[in-house]
Structure formats: C-alpha cells, structure tokens
Specification:
The chain is an alpha+beta fold. Helices cover about 25% and strands about 35% of the residues. It is built from nine helices and 20 strands. The strands form four sheets. The chain has a six-stranded mixed beta sheet, sandwiched between helices. Strands 13-12-11-14-20 form a five-stranded antiparallel beta sheet, with no helix packed on it. The protein has a five-stranded antiparallel beta sheet with strand order 15-19-16-17-18, with no helix packed on it. A hairpin with a 2-residue loop joins strand 4 (about 65-70) and strand 5 (about 70). Helix 2 (about 100-110) packs parallel to helix 4. The longest helix is centred in the middle third of the chain and has 18 residues, at about 170-185. The radius of gyration is 25 Å and the shape is elongated. Bound molecules: adenosine-5'-triphosphate (ATP). Adenosine-5'-triphosphate binds near residues 19, 44, 45 and 196.
Length: about 375
C-alpha cells in the first residue's frame, strides 16, 4: 500500500511550554520510535495537546528542540514539517465529495493524476464505495476515516491524532480504535495519539506516556504500565488499584514482608518502585482482578502462601462477565474485587464475611510519601 517513509524517530529534547507564569509542559525529553503507535495519555489540562501541537509546529516551544530523524524542525512552520494532524472535528470540506476531500492535498501540490492514490487510500480506510458521497451522508466514524485518509495521502512521516475519536459514541469508538490500529500497522508510519481515555490508549498504542501536571509520569508498553505502575497516579489513572497502607517488617532475599492493621502481606522486592526498608512505610497495591474471594466458611480451602485479608462485602454489582465487589476490611476501607462469573456463590452478597486472597507475586509496592488518591478524581471526572 503506502510506502514506508524513510526518516526516523520523533525526538523531543528539553521541550517545554510556558504561558506567562504557568508551565503547561515542563522540560521533556521523549523519543518516539519510527513506525510506532505512541499515545500521550492524561486527564484534561495535563499538557498532552500542547506537546502534540509543538510536534506539529502549531505551538512554539518555550525551550527545547524537536527533531524528526536527524532533521531539526523546531523553527519550521507546520506546513513545512512532514507531519499531518487529524483533529476531533474532522474538518472535512462539506461541499466536496469524499474523493475530492481525500485528493485535496495532492491537488494543492499540483499532482494531476490523483485517482490511483485516492482509490488506494479509500480502500485502506474501507470507504471505496462512498467516494461520491458528501461528508454529511456518512456516519461520524466514516467521516473520521476520511479525515485519516486525507492526512495519510500526503505521506507524512508522522501522523498526529488529537482526540480523534472524542466525538464518537462508545461503541463506534471501540470499532474505530481497532480500525486505526489496523491502518497504522498497514501503513507503518508513526502515529502519535492524544487521548484522555486509558482504555483507548492501551488498546491501540505500542507505547503509552502517562502525563500528569505537564510531566510524563511513566512511559512504557500498556501491559508494563498496568502491571508495574511506579506512582500512585499511574496506578489509579490506568484502571483501578487497591492501595493498602502498610509498614515494612522485613525486606530481605527478594521478598518484602509488611503488615497492615495486623494483617501480614508479602510482595516481591523487584515489584517495589522504592527501596523498602524495615520500619518504613509502603503502599501495597493489587489489581481487583487478581484477587479471589471466598465466603469465610470456606477459608480453609485457600492454598497456603497466598496474601489473605478478611472483610465484609459492602456492595456488589453484577455486570455480566464479572461481579464487582466492594469489601470493607481493616487494611483498607473499600477494596475492589472483580470475580469472573463462572460459578456464582449465592452467599457472596452485601453483609457477608469473606476472605480475599491473592498471589503475593501479583502485588506491587509504591512510595508511601505520595498522595494515595492521585489520579482517582481524574478518572471520575472523565467517566
Ligand atoms: P485537554 O484534554 O483538555 O485538551 P490537555 O492535556 O491536552 O487537556 P493542554 O491543552 O495541553 O491540555 O493544556 C495544558 C494546560 O495549558 C492547561 O491548563 C491549559 O489551560 C493551558 N493552556 C493551553 N493553551 C493555553 C494558552 N494559549 N494560554 C494559556 N494557557 C493555555
């Protein structure tokens, strides 16, 4: 299909943006590998759009440089950079049909025979049969695919996507996520995607940079970020985490023993983002789906070597594929537990005494000096 453009990585070096005394983006070093699908993820106002706009040339950085491969583009206007941007508002020309919308960039550059390329692009976004329709005769998702085709036909080195799916309803958004991922894999160019939707970032991106307050808080592959968050913000913003305040009893031989409200728990030292010291505090984290839950009468069926916490079910919601429980326990007021609906135990209802248990290997440790609720509110605001 489209040729893989020669070029290189997007490299941001010490790039920052101030508006008066307000710092929207703190000095940032970031390399986005060529051909990758990269997501800038964060709550509203964290600086992700500003970062994207500095790559596009739509915003002048206060400090730092932008390189595309070996070429510095910091001072170049947007149209001289080998990048194209797709916005949430598709900004299609309403009076032109789809074919003409897609061919626009080629015609502007004086290309005479556009048909082959436009047909190829429409094929890529699976809209070949809609070539002669006007934008208003297409659905939101189809219009967004036209916007992607219109950008890709210019063979940019990098495609920047600024919340491109924000205007679509949830189901269409899910479809378009898979569609955009397929298109990116097919054309092989670098996609830099800005979103506040953590599921969207994790579904599509090879690498996600989680931004908070104008800084990249953590960067990595989706599974790596999810399994090994290094800050409370990432732990709470990316999915749900149970964070338990604990005191370190012992940290030797690769295993860390802690206590919380008299309950002993253990976790691997390598999964701690801080060096645990005996007598010090640690936030102990575990994801809700890693926890199993049994009625207290069945507590003797729990294998040895598991982390165990007793509690009482405060609430439960059946959501088809799983049941989500909120459990009050001495170690944490509201522990979240997701149990797959394989065999449902009718005794597991609000008020029931239960024992939660999980593999210590599925436990992570975070620096206790952080705000335990960082990132929680942002999720609620966005939901
Ligand atoms: P959103 O998802 O809401 O767009 P964002 O993470 O993309 O959020 P930015 O648009 O990058 O955030 O904005 C970062 C911060 O910089 C915000 O607090 C915003 O109010 C501020 N900001 C952005 N543009 C300007 C401007 N032109 N003048 C002053 N402040 C600005």
């Amino acid at each position: 299909m489209t040729e893989k453009t020669a070029g290189g990585d997007v490299r941001l070096t010490g790039i920052s943006k101030h508006y008066g005394s307000f710092t929207a983006v703190h000095p940032l070093d970031l390399t986005i590998p060529q051909g990758s699908f990269f997501a800038l993820l964060g709550a509203s106002g964290c600086g992700k759009t500003t970062t994207l706009r500095m790559i596009a040339g739509l915003e002048d950085p206060s400090t730092g440089t932008v390189h595309l491969g070996d070429r510095e583009v910091t001072g170049l206007p947007p149209y001289k950079r080998p990048v194209n941007t797709v916005f949430q508002s598709y900004a299609l020309f309403p009076h032109l049909d789809i074919f003409e919308n897609v061919s626009f960039g080629l015609r502007r550059r004086g290309v005479k025979s556009v048909k082959k390329q436009v047909d190829e692009m429409l094929e890529l976004v699976e809209l070949g049969q809609f070539a002669r329709r006007k934008p208003h005769q297409l659905s939101g998702g189809q219009q967004q695919r036209v916007a992607v085709a219109r950008a890709l036909i210019n063979h940019p080195q990098v495609l920047l996507l600024d919340e491109p799916l924000g205007a679509l309803d949830l189901k269409l958004r899910r479809q378009m996520q898979l569609e955009l991922k397929r298109i990116q894999t097919e054309v092989g160019i670098t996609f830099v995607h800005v979103t506040h939707d953590q599921e969207e970032a994790m579904t599509m991106a090879d690498t996600v940079a989680v931004m908070n307050g104008g800084r990249v808080e953590q960067l990595g592959a989706p599974a790596e970020l999810y399994e090994n968050p290094r800050t409370t913000f990432v732990a709470n913003f990316l999915g749900t985490s149970n964070l338990i305040q604990a005191t370190v009893e012992q940290a030797a031989g690769g295993e860390v023993q802690v206590t919380s409200a008299g309950t002993k728990l253990s976790l691997p030292a390598e999964r701690c983002s801080t060096t645990p010291r005996a007598g010090g505090d640690l936030l102990v984290g575990v994801r809700p789906e890693k926890i199993s839950l049994v009625h207290v009468e069945d507590a003797d069926t729990i294998p040895t070597g598991r982390n165990r916490v007793t509690g009482r079910i405060a609430a439960s919601s059946f959501i088809g594929v799983s049941t989500q429980f909120v459990v009050d326990s001495p170690v944490c007021e509201e522990l979240e537990v997701y149990v797959q609906n394989v065999e449902r135990d009718v005794r597991l209802r609000p008020g029931a005494e239960v024992v939660l248990h999980w593999n210590p290997a599925h436990t992570f440790g975070l620096d206790a000096a952080q705000d335990i609720d960082a990132g929680v509110e942002s999720v609620e605001v966005d939901a």
